[in-house]
Amino acid sequence: MRTIAVVGASPNPLRPSNDVLGFLVDRGYEAWPVNPGHAGAFIRGRPVSARLADIPARIDMVDVFRNSANAGGAVDEALELDPLPRVIWMQLGVVNEEAAVRARAKGVTVVMNRCPVIETRRLRAA
């Protein structure tokens, strides 16, 4: 996976979404921040899109920084993409079983309550 959309990316360097976006960019991933409140700006040197559909690239993975109740909307938006992303990842503390069922029914892998930065570091240390 090379192209990752970070839904809920924040320009605030103290927010975890900003750190994760920076981690991905620093490691050569094509990372796309998504945040309608900051569309047209830049976060970590990457242009911010208002919606997943606005990203001018095929998205392999959608990383969701929304609370559990609002994660379903981000998942549904991802499921409207053509082609579909291969993976939808919900961050630490984010679990939405109903959204996961919808995504899995379309063949999309779902990861919940995990952080790709933590998992990458853990796997590289193993």
Please describe what this structure looks like.
With 126 residues, the chain is α/β, with parallel strands linked by helices. It is 33% helix and 20% strand. The protein contains 4 helices and 7 strands. The chain has helices at residues 16-26, 68-79, 97-105, 116-125; strands at residues 3-7, 30-34, 42-43, 46-47, 61-64, 87-90, 109-111. The strands form 2 sheets. Strands 2-1-5-6-7 form a 5-stranded parallel beta sheet, with helices on both faces. The mean pLDDT is 96.
Structural class: alpha/beta
Question: What Rg do the Cα atoms give?
Answer: 13 Å
Helix amount? 25-40%
Question: Mean of the pLDDT scores?
Answer: 96
Q: Going across the major beta sheet, what is the strand order?
A: 2-1-5-6-7
Shape: globular
Indicate the proportion of strand residues: 15-25%
Which terms would index this structure?
5-stranded parallel sheet; 4 helices; globular; 7 strands; 126 residues; alpha/beta; single chain; 33% helix
Topology, please?
Blueprint: E1 3-7, H1 16-26, E2 30-34, E3 42-43, E4 46-47, E5 61-64, H2 68-79, E6 87-90, H3 97-105, E7 109-111, H4 116-125
Parallel strand pairs: 1-2, 1-5, 5-6, 6-7
Antiparallel strand pairs: 3-4
